[in-house]
Every structure is written in C-alpha cells, then in structure tokens.
Design brief:
The complex is a heterodimer of chains A (about 180) and B (about 250). Chain A is mainly α and about 180 residues long. Helices cover about 60% and strands about 0% of the residues of chain A. The longest helix of chain A is centred in the middle third of the chain and has 20 residues. Chain A starts with 5 loop residues before the first helix and ends in an 11-residue tail after the last helix. Chain B is about 50% helix and about 20% strand. Chain B is built from nine helices and seven strands. Classes of the chains: A mainly alpha (about 180), B alpha+beta (about 250).
Chain lengths: ~180, ~250
C-alpha cells in the first residue's frame, strides 16, 4: 500500500476532505441507504487517499466524486443482482407527460420526492443529484460521470421529466421500477 | 408536439448554463412560445420542490471522526510503531464535548446581561470558527437569496432577512442553522475576496446592549440591531469590510 508522506496527508485533509458531505450525499442516493453509503464513502475516501499521488490540482470535489461514483457502482454490482443495475436505456424512458400544467408539485413533500428520486434509474438519479443537490455544473457532471456534456444534458432533461411523471402519479401506481 | 427549444435550450437556461447571448435569445423566444413557458414553469416548480425538500444528506459525524482519526492514526503509527491512539482520541473528544457543555451551561447561567456582550461575541466567534471546519460552512449552499431564504422556513421560528450583495462585492454563499449562546440562530454566509463572513441573525432580545464591535482570537466582530433582529457579523476581513456589509444591510 502506498502510504502518503506527511505533507501530502495534510494536503489531502485540506483539499479533499472538505467534500466529504458531497461524497456521502452522492453515495447515499446511489445506494439508497445511509449505512451502506457510510461504508462505501469510507472505502472511496481511502481509495482517493491512495490515489492522491495522481491528483495534481484542479477540481478536488469532481475528482473525489468520480471515485465515489465508481466505488458505488462497483459495490452495487457486487452486492445486488445484475438485473437491478439499470444502465441508460432509451427504450425504458417514459414519454413526456402531455399536461405539464397538471403536474402541480406544491404538495410534494420530502418523502414523496425521496421515493420518486430513488426509483429513477441510476444514470438519471446520479445526474439529478449532482445537479440539483450538489449544484455541479454540466462540465463537472460530465467529468464525474465520464459522459459527454450532450449526454448529461439529455439525461438531465429526461430524468426531470421522469421525476415529474412519477410525482404526478398516485403512490400506489408508482411501480418500484428500479427495485 | 413540444417545441424544439424546450428540448435543447430550456434546461441549459434553467441551470444557468447558457451563455449570455443564447440566454437572451431564449428569453425572447419565451415571450411568444407558450409551450416553452409552460415547460419552464413546470421545471422551476420541480426545482423549487427539490430545493425545499431538504434532500441533501450530510456525512454522519461518525464517518468524519473515523476518517480523520484514521489518517492521523497512520501518521502516529509511523512515528511510534505499534502505538494505538484510538482510546486517547475518544477521551480527547469526550473532554472537548464536556468543556463545550460546561461553557454553554455557564453562559446560560450568567444570562445575557449588559456585561455579557463580550461573552456573546466570543460565542459567535466560536461559531464562526466551527463553521470553517470542513463541511460545516453551509446547510444550504446557494448564491440565490430566493433559495436560501425559504430554506429557513420551518427550521427556525423567524424569517431572517436574506440578501445577496454580489454586486457590492459580498456574494452570498449560503446559510445554515447554528447555536450560539444557547440559542438557535440563522447564519448567513458571505464571501469577501476569498474570506468568509458569517452574519448571525437572531430575534432581538429586549435589552438594547447588544451593539458594538471588537476583536476576539484574531477575528473581528460587529453587531447591530435592525427591524427587530440582532445581527453579529464575524470574519477575519478588515473591520472596514464589516462596516460596509452592515451599511448594505441597513440600506435595504
């Protein structure tokens, strides 16, 4: 194992650890579970610590979140059935709702939003979490998810449409598609 | 049939990712396209719901402690092979907590009489220092006062006056709840040339002593009262910058 020298360790604590909340939040939404998220975030931070030699400068948050994301997907692949691992697939996307004005969201509470977000396919969920909760720019999201910006933009539009769709449906009809 | 621009421009516009020219041309398009106007309203409503739902989940303290403990532990192990610092670290944490509880209790006991302005300021300086710890600065991170202000709804029993002074050189960074002097206060976070300024806001106590400025632990603080609120700005910027920020608040 590559143990960092003292100076690097202090630099790691100063540049990377400030983004621990961002790391945990992303893991929590990707894994849909706080306990797993805590374990996986810890694992990801250790990986980042070991890989810190390759980090030069730039966007430490994006660098860490990229590692967190990859660690999460590895974990998901190992711990859940392959069928649950939904990759981006155009054919599974629902059509845009015809009546945007009926999608009044005033009554949406935290629980309903949480459920709706958790049932989104992972590829949409991660992009929505990065944009809406973490406030990442398109460029950062593209860097974190290793996708072209165009894909990020279309996934964001589709993810939002699907989120609005599932919020506008009664909870009972809302099939737990990703579970 | 949705308008083409709904697909291509709307989200970039919503997310502030369009350059000024494209944004202006999309705004012009919005004036005539009801389709885009409706979609934009729906997207904005969704965005607001997500922001207000408080879905962001911060790292638990146990994770923070185990990580910081761990990286420090590696150093300790290198300097003193075989040494196990964990129990001592826990003792240290317990001691700090005890001290914090004791100080809090002392402040509650001593009340908030006129002689305690310095003590109150010291507790705000402590809160400022705490906020500078990694991950503690903001609960809601946004430069938009219309995002930060509603975030406080239901979290605190008053609506703090949240304003962005980006044009005046004090951009809003975000807000959070904090505890100072045994009371829950709203903390508004501003930045000033790479420095952080915390503006603590609470409902004004009936006493009128709570005005003044000073220095504690190398940080400047400035307090004032306005519209039934008490403000305390704390930062390592020059006192003149705090005065300027105060004037901006008072001018509105």
């Amino acid at each position: 194992m590559n143990v960092l020298e003292g100076e690097d360790r202090a630099r790691f604590e100063a540049t990377v650890l400030p983004h621990l909340d961002a790391a945990f939040n992303l893991a929590r939404w990707l894994l849909r579970n706080r306990t797993d998220a805590e374990d996986v975030t810890q694992d990801a931070v250790f990986r980042a610590f070991r890989a810190f030699g390759t980090y030069r400068s730039g966007n430490a948050r994006a660098w860490l979140l990229q590692i967190v994301r990859n660690t999460c997907f590895t974990w998901l692949r190992q711990n859940r059935m392959a069928a649950e691992f939904m990759e981006f697939d155009e054919t599974t996307m629902p059509q845009e709702s015809e009546n945007p004005e009926t999608l009044a969201l005033a009554g949406s509470d935290r629980e309903q939003l949480t459920r709706a977000l958790e049932t989104l396919p992972e590829s949409f969920r991660e992009i929505l979490v990065l944009r809406e909760l973490e406030g990442c720019s398109y460029k950062e999201i593209a860097e974190i998810t290793s996708r072209p910006i165009g894909t990020v933009m279309s996934a964001l539009a589709r993810g939002r449409a699907q989120l609005r769709n599932s919020l506008s449906q009664p909870a009972s009809k809302e099939a737990r598609r990703a579970v | 049939m949705p308008c083409d621009q709904t697909q291509t421009q709307l989200h970039g516009y919503l997310d502030g990712e369009l350059d000024a020219l494209s944004a202006a041309s999309f705004e012009k398009h919005l004036e005539t396209c009801t389709d885009c106007k409706q979609s934009l309203a729906a997207e904005e409503s969704l965005h607001r719901s997500i922001q207000q739902a408080g879905l962001y989940e911060r790292a638990p303290e146990s994770l923070r402690i185990s990580l910081l403990g761990n990286s420090k532990q590696q150093a300790a192990v290198r300097s003193f092979p075989g040494a196990r610092l964990s129990p001592w670290r826990w003792l240290a944490v317990a001691a700090v907590l005890l001290l914090a509880v004791f100080i809090g209790w002392r402040q509650l006991q001593s009340g908030r009489g006129p002689g305690n302005a310095q003590l109150m300021a010291a507790s705000f300086v402590d809160a400022h220092l705490r906020s500078l710890q990694p991950g503690h600065l903001t609960d809601v991170q946004s430069t938009d006062q219309h995002t930060v202000k509603p975030w406080f709804d239901g979290r605190i029993d008053f609506a703090p006056p949240v304003r962005d002074f980006a044009n005046e050189g004090f951009p809003l960074v975000g807000g959070r709840l904090d505890v100072a002097g045994g009371k829950t206060v709203a903390a508004l976070v501003y930045s000033r040339r790479e420095h952080i300024i915390n503006v603590f806001v609470e409902k004004a106590p009936s006493e009128s002593y709570w005005n003044g400025s000073g220095e504690s632990q190398g940080y400047h603080w400035l307090t004032w009262q306005q519209n039934g609120f008490s403000f305390c700005a704390v930062s390592d910027v020059a006192p003149v910058d705090l005065d300027q920020l105060q004037q901006l608040f008072l001018a509105k």
